[in-house]
Design a protein that fits this description.
- The complex is a heterodimer.
- Chain A is mostly helical.
- Helices cover 61% and strands 6% of the residues of chain A.
- The N and C termini of chain A lie far apart (77 Å).
- Chain B contains 3 helices and 6 strands; from the N terminus they run αββαβββαβ.
- In chain B, strands 1-6-2-3-4-5 form a 6-stranded antiparallel sheet.
- Chain B is globular, with a radius of gyration of 13 Å.
- The chains are: A mainly alpha, B alpha+beta.
- At the A-B interface, helix 4, helix 12, helix 13, helix 19 and strand 9 of A face helix 2, strand 3, strand 4, strand 5 and helix 3 of B.
- Strand 9 of chain A pairs antiparallel with strand 5 of chain B.
Amino acid sequence: MALLKKDERVFKSEVASKLFTFALVGNPNSGKTTLFNALTGLRQKIANYPGVTIEKKVGIFYTLYGEKCQLIDLPGTYSLLPNSPDEKITTEVLLGLREDTPKPDGIICIVDASNLERSLYLVSQILELDRPVVIVLNMIDELAAKGWEVDCRILSQKFNCPVVPCQANKKSGVVQLKTVLSKEIARSKPFVLNYPDFIDEEITAIENQSEIQGIGPISRIMLLLLLLSPDPETTAKLFRMDFLIQPIQRAQEKIGKLKPNWRDAVVRERFLTLQYLVKGAVKKGGHLSRGLSDLIDRYVAHPVWGWLIFSMAMALMFLAVFGMGSYPKDLIDEGMRAISEKFQAVFPPGELRDLICQGIIGGAGNVVVFLPQILVLFFFIGLLEDTGYMARAAFLMDKLMNAVGLHGKSFLPLLSSHACAIPGILAARTIDNPKDRLLTILIAPFASCSARLPVYVLMCGVLFSQHSHPVLWSSFTIFFLYILGIGGAFFFAWLFKKTLFKGKQSFLLLELPPYRRPSIKSIGLQMYERALAFLKRAGTIIVSVSILLWFLTSHPKLPGESSSQALSHSFAGRIGHFIEPIIKPLGFNWKIGVGLLSAQAAREMFVSTMGVIYTGEETKENILPLAQAMRKDKWPDGKEVFSPLCCFSLMIYFAFSLQCLSTVAVVRRETGSWKWALFQFAYMTSFAYFCAFLFYQIGLLLGFS
Amino acid sequence: MIEKERKANSNRKNTISLAEADIGSIFYVHSIEGNAVECHRLRELGFCEKAEVVKIAHGAMTVCLVCGSKVGLNKLLAKRIFVTSAKKDSAI
């Protein structure tokens, strides 16, 4: 059992994918992506909780001889018998069952050195696949600091494959790993584990039967996994071995009659063997039990203290978004206005000046100003992920999640959706039960994503900028809107669980990562990438749509019209007037209607559209801040358009509606049909309209304006 | 069905569920209840018969140490894992 010889490697690489391919596999949160980043120089997302990688990722690295290799980072798993869609990807890639991915020529198994027994369970299954394997012992420095020693030479002898110590986050051991991956290593003895007799007998019987039927040799570990599988039909289909369904079912029945607790015996025997193999290789030092970590867990898991800590963390996050984010936001805002004024002064009046000032700066500029607040939000989410608190928070929310019919694991996709619904929907892959997964996907976009934040901040600016405590009131309002979004998600989860997805509650089981000091570098990198993505979006889609909107709002030009008359008669004005009867019961005028239409592409387009419409309208006098310009807008009867009732109605509409074409496309991909994607769009939009309508009309009846 | 339950109950004499177990004590896994898929996943995580478990915390979740790693379980699941005390003089 060792790496392929060089000539075999060349042959394989030419036939399969032109590149020698390694798969990187291990338990969740064992540091796979950190090692992947260290080897490839890429910057895939890493965090201190299990289930961050939910899709395979591919990178390139070079061996010490300059050979180009392909590295596939796979979702974490505990066993080759998959339980959830993300684990299924790992099994399929390792067994070479995916058409879009070449069968790996070598496998790098990454193992948390402080947790050898558990990690080696998966490694032992992979070793039995009889493929070239390298074991990487990660976090070895942390173990050494506690006085523990792992003898890699002994482990290598016992597992018949190279074993490399490593500390992936510090990139130590990476060169040694590359050296091993570069070497020509002669084949050694394969790794063979003894199975209990009753399993051996059945495997031999199936092998004989397959031989008689003319089917080629089948790997013993695959037969063992099929035998152990509680759902042999699904597993056999996954392994493309449908012909074995009946023989396996018969064998399971036979063993079950002889030994009722046979599955436990098989797993236990594997663990005992691994314990025996590891014994001589590990020299134990101080106690690995994390005293302080355990103490923190007692408070975090406490029914009262736990909630208090959680609420304080959330409150701090929202206050920081406004307290820390508002100052740089105002600076960018002023900068944008100064740039716009410069252009006004330099260029003579005309189409080009209007295009630059109203179309580009008025459109994209109004979205860019929200970048600091979005970054503060990402900083706090990164902080919660990196410390290891996220997995604990999932348990805190579990009871609440269960009460509304959601799975405890749904918390992580829901929390991710507060950054963006798309990674949140993808994160639902970690949920084992298909019904629970679909339910989570259907309600995830209710979580207030960062694209909603610019809309909320703008409306709070309109509402509270002249108030004595704008930061406090804005924080409170936006916190309430976030709760409202979660409330909507919980209500529909409860409704769907009672109607569409009836079934039993699933359990929640998560490996709790150790508490770690957050890595500012890692959080900073995530923030940088988010900022880049945000600015890219602002510089492409938002600028393009803003230019189109500028054209629609400023054409056709009729001589002698005031700016508001021209806007009203423009193409956009006509579209807005056309839809106004539908949105007027919600308190919205035609200008808001144009904003809502453009927001269907992306929510933050609403702010950009308001920028084009309102600041464009004011350019002949002077350029006003957007919120101030909006506040000046009046209905024909002289009443304010952006009254408190209208502002709240608009925010409620945004809190519940699905206005993101990318989300619809991702839901279609994840659910495999347009049916669920369109259903989600229809029910969320109708619900948003209904709630905003109810709020506005009841408000009017109660005498509010 | 009733007979099956009675048999399971008699097999679980001198055991308690992990949810009821004391914090800070060491236990051995006796048996797991539940559907086959859930039970198998638990076993693969180290909760197989006679495996050593240390209970660390309970409340919103049950935290325990198994196979060297810290695992969190919700109450529903902790109630399905039956354990016996590792010490003879234990209260169990």
